[in-house]
Every structure is written in structure tokens, then in C-alpha cells.
Design a protein that fits this description.
Structural class: alpha/beta
Strand content: 15-25%
CATH architecture of the largest domain: 3-Layer(aba) Sandwich
Number of strands: 11
Helix content: 25-40%
Radius of gyration: 20 Å
């Protein structure tokens, strides 16, 4: 594999998540000299169980390959994230909850959105083709490793993904500020494919026109601006989780 196809994860949580999830090739784990403690010994043991070499490295080496100063003395050289077919995102039982993140351009916000979705129990995340390789460390760190665990698939467009999941019996939903119902008055327990758009591009008119459900996040006061994608994702995904938990009780 060429050097261009490799990137770096940083921080014990991100590296451990990648090791446990098996979400991408991992070629080498580096730990800064003098940083060994019980948690890092466990990291080394986990790496060795996957036959991935671990070695100590100078602080200058770690700093040169990390994107920031929050690496804690741990980095890993890795390959691209593995993606699944769309069909593999559907759970074997229960009501599916699939989300597509489309147009989130900031890798930190993308990672934060994945963090919320994973914590809320999403079954899978769809993204458009994009080379997040150079930002893998930021995405993994901001998601607290959730980006490595959450099942992910790629679709060329949001309409392609919606058409596929509609054929599987899922309701197609998105956010909108026009002709939309309150998030808290919408049945989110049904099999659901939800599109969340980025701050700049938003959701296309063609998708809005064919969506089965449009939801709006009610505000507590008059405010003319939309929430950021990561915040909106957290609000919606935990309302989905709340409704589904309430239905089971």
C-alpha cells in the first residue's frame, strides 16, 4: 500500500477502538518513551493479540505524526476505514435506525456527530464518497473512538441511499424548517432512514420533495439560525433513543 493510503490515529482511546473494532488495517503502534503505564500495557497486549507490533518512539517522532497535542504519547499507523454494503447496516431484528451524514465538511464536527449517533444506538451510518484519510486522527479523537465502532457504508448520493432503504421498508426522514412537524410529535420508532445535512449545503430540494417525514427541532426561544450539524444530530438521535426505549417499557 502506498504511503498516500496510510494515515495516523492518535491517543490511546482512538487506537484501542481501532484495535477492538477491526475497522481498518493497523500496521504499527508507537508509544512514547517513558509513557508506559497500566493502560498502555493493556493497549500493547491488545495489539499483540492482533499480531500488530508495538514499539517505543521518541517524543519528537510522536509529535511529528500527530495532528495535535492530545495524543498522550500514543499513535498508530493505519490504513483506510473499511466500509460495509448498505444492506449490512440493517439489523437482524428490531426497527432499523440508519442515518446519513451528508455535507459535514469539518472533521471535528463529523466526529462529534458520529459520537452522538453511536451513543444513541444508531444501527449504521451512511456517508458519501470522500477521502477522510488525512483527517482520520481528528475524526477518531473527536468521536472518542466511536468512528471506529459504528458500522458505516458509502452511497454516491443521499437519494441513492434513500431509494435503497425505502425498498427495505424504511421511512425516509430529514430535518426542515418548512412544512415540518415537531421532532417530539413525530413517531420515530418506525424503521427509519434519517438524512442530516451539513451547515453550508443543507438538504437538497429533490430530497425534501421525496421525504416521507420532515422534522423540526423546537427552540426554547426565538432564534433565526439552525443548529450546527453535530448538535442537531445529538438532539435527534437521543429523541429516537428515548422514544424507542419508552415503547419497550
Amino acid at each position: 500500500m502506498s504511503d498516500e493510503a496510510r494515515s495516523w490515529l492518535e491517543g490511546r482511546i482512538s487506537v484501542m477502538a481501532a484495535l477492538q473494532a477491526g475497522s481498518r488495517p493497523i500496521y504499527q503502534v508507537y508509544v512514547q518513551k517513558g509513557k508506559w503505564d497500566r493502560a498502555l500495557q493493556q493497549l500493547k497486549k491488545t495489539a499483540e493479540s492482533h499480531q500488530i507490533p508495538t514499539q517505543t518512539a521518541a517524543a519528537a517522532f510522536i509529535d511529528a505524526h500527530a495532528g495535535g497535542q492530545s495524543h498522550g504519547g500514543v499513535i498508530a499507523e493505519v490504513g483506510p476505514r473499511r466500509f460495509l454494503p448498505l444492506s449490512d447496516l440493517l439489523p437482524a431484528t428490531g426497527s432499523p435506525f440508519i442515518v446519513m451524514l451528508d455535507g459535514i465538511e469539518d472533521p471535528f464536527n463529523f466526529g462529534q456527530a458520529l459520537r452522538a449517533l453511536y451513543a444513541a444506538g444508531v444501527d449504521g451510518v451512511v456517508v458519501r464518497p470522500r477521502n477522510w484519510l488525512s483527517a482520520a486522527g481528528v475524526v477518531a479523537r473527536s468521536s472518542a473512538g466511536a468512528s471506529e465502532f459504528v458500522p458505516m457504508a458509502v452511497a454516491e448520493t443521499s437519494l441513492d441511499a434513500a431509494n435503497f432503504f425505502r425498498q427495505q421498508g424504511l421511512t425516509i426522514a430529514c430535518t426542515s424548517d418548512k412544512q415540518a412537524t415537531s421532532l417530539y410529535e413525530t413517531d420515530l420508532t418506525q424503521p427509519l432512514f434519517l438524512l442530516i445535512g451539513g451547515e453550508r449545503r443543507g438538504i437538497t430540494r429533490s430530497f425534501l420533495d421525496q421525504a416521507d417525514v420532515k422534522v423540526q427541532i423546537p427552540y426554547g426561544r426565538s432564534f433565526s439560525y439552525s443548529l450546527g450539524a453535530a448538535a442537531a444530530t445529538a438532539v435527534i438521535s437521543f429523541e429516537v433513543a428515548r422514544q424507542r426505549k419508552a415503547r419497550k417499557t
